[in-house]
Design goal:
Length: 133
């Protein structure tokens, strides 16, 4: 399974929406992981969540916990790619967080577009390996 590990941005439940928006903008992300003070994954805030919050008049000083989607939809690191894609489609999510031992310990992200590129053979890693041969 192809996962992005090095660009994982996470915020705490108490962080305000300004911090989350800045994180999404500066890192050019579609969503960020929300963790509790113990470091466990408890939710996700996406651009869509922020748009809905804005539409309903939520203040930018509000905590991320007030708008996050829960639970975090995830799969194990060793999960089959086809099953991961199926899980995203069934749960109607664009990204699947990847965990190691327990679902609370997220180690990476698999997006639907990452999975599609990998399955089509047009992912960056696949292209690089073909050029080297």
């Amino acid at each position: 399974m192809s996962i992005r590990q090095n660009c994982m941005t996470a915020f705490l439940e108490a962080d305000n929406l300004v911090q989350v928006i800045e994180g999404l903008t500066t890192q050019r992300l579609g969503a960020v992981l929300i963790r509790n003070p113990s470091g466990n994954a408890v939710g996700v805030v996406s651009k869509t969540d922020l748009i809905v919050a804005y539409k309903h008049g939520m203040a930018v000083e509000a905590a991320a916990a007030e708008v996050m989607s829960q639970p975090v939809v995830s799969c194990g690191e060793e999960s089959d790619l086809a099953l991961a894609i199926q899980r995203m489609l069934i749960r109607d999510v664009q990204r699947l967080f990847v965990h190691s031992v327990t679902p609370a310990r997220i180690t990476g992200i698999l997006s639907l577009s990452d999975a599609a590129r990998f399955r089509s053979g047009s992912c960056r890693a696949c292209t690089s390996s073909r050029l080297i041969r």
